[in-house]
Amino acid sequence: MHLPTVTLLALAINLIVGIYLYLLYRRKPKDRCFKLWSYSCGFFVLGSALVAMRPYPIPEFFSFFIADCLLLLAPVYVLAGLVQFSRFRYTKRRRQLAFVALAIAITIFLLSYPQPGLLSIMAALAIGLTFCLCAFLLKKSIITEPIFTRTLQAIFVLHALLMFVQAALVLFHWQQLNIHGLPESSIYTLLSHILLTTLTALLLPWLSFLKLERKLTLKSQRDGLTRLANREHFFNQLEYYWQQHPYTPAVFMMIDIDFFKKVNDTFGHAVGDRAIASVAKLLSKQLRSNDIIGRIGGEEFAALLIDIDEHTALQVSQRLCQQVAKQLKSIEDAQVELTISIGMVHVIPSYHDHVTAFKQADEALYASKQAGRNTVTLGKLHSA
Q1: How many other C-beta atoms lie within 10 A of the C-beta of residue 285?
Q2: What per-residue string of b and e applies to 240-257 under the rule 16 or more CB within 10 Å gives b?
Q3: Where is the GGDEF domain positioned along the sequence (predicted)?
């Protein structure tokens, strides 16, 4: 298969895929990634078309410089679409650095286009590095489907390797370059590149679908007011911890806002809701990221402090009481003077089931209420 045929095949496939992606964007305009990826296919089609015209008497500025700029923009727009699926923080400074890097690459293309071989090397290296960045962003993806993300990541890495191989072929066959600035042996890398480009374009939309699925899953697991785990998800996490860490000590903690009914009756339910949200936010900040916390009732929370002893847990719980009393004296203009009461038990999962731990922590919470509130009670469990 000679290069013009390969190029025509690439034009047809990527044009269809680009139209498909743009239609997805029109269907879901909030997902800008579809528009960016459709532009990526469009740039690849236009760049390939200009490459195909190199044997004809058109200015080299268009058939080489503009063509390779468009071919570079194809993975750049793939990269831009991947940003919204990554935990990578795309700050203003990083955005500026990205534009500077792109401007430098285009300037290098402009300076080297009179020498087709040199331009081919520069373009291949730039495209390869861009696909490396795509693989890096996907490594930090919020999508938790390992098979899918690793497959797409492997495709990006293969893209990059092919481009580096193409640059090496040009360098090693510098004296035998054709009109396109490429050696005849590079036809195989071009075929592979086209195949991977098409496969990438078909797989990319699944990122958006998986993100939507993840969003719906998180929504079903979170309490709408506090964004903590809801009751069902909290106890599911609790069961999982009991199964996975049978010998790791932990502290089960029940937390209740004191005199919450009075807050609602005095200041209204809107202030009451803000009070619950404020306590939840403070608890989340004070506890460790690996601790499990959830809202299991109206003004009631539960937490599992992982791998901790009784003494440290008591210090943590007393600090929670102190911080709530200190920081939540008022909610906006309402002088609510919030406090919390805590009941807790120290557990080893293999010795105590989570239902018993919950019951004993709840009884300890009741004891804290009876003792005057804004206090901590440590309950005791007997080994089974």
Answers
A1: 9
A2: ebbeeeeeebbbbbbbbb
A3: 248-381
Q: pLDDT tens-digit profile of 129-165? A: 999 999 998 888 777 677 888 888 998 999 899 899 9
| Chain region(s) in the chain for CATH 1.20.1070 | 3-221
**CATH of span 231-379:** 3.30.70.270
Closest CA to 72 of 115, 138, 124: 124
pLDDT digits (tens, 9 = 90+) for 82-121: 888 887 777 888 889 999 999 999 999 999 988 888 998 9
- Looking at the predicted structure, is the pLDDT value of residue 277 above 90? yes
**What whole-number distance in Å separates Cα of residue 190 and Cα of residue 123?**
13
Q: Which residue has the tokens 């785990």?
A: 229
User: pTM of the prediction?
Assistant: 0.66
Enter the CATH code of domain 3-221.
1.20.1070
Domain with CATH 3.30.70.270 in the chain: 231-379
* Measured distance CA(122)–CA(102) in Å, rounded: 13
Residue 338 dihedral angles phi and psi, to the nearest 5°: -70, 145
What kind and span of H or E run contains 128? helix 116-139
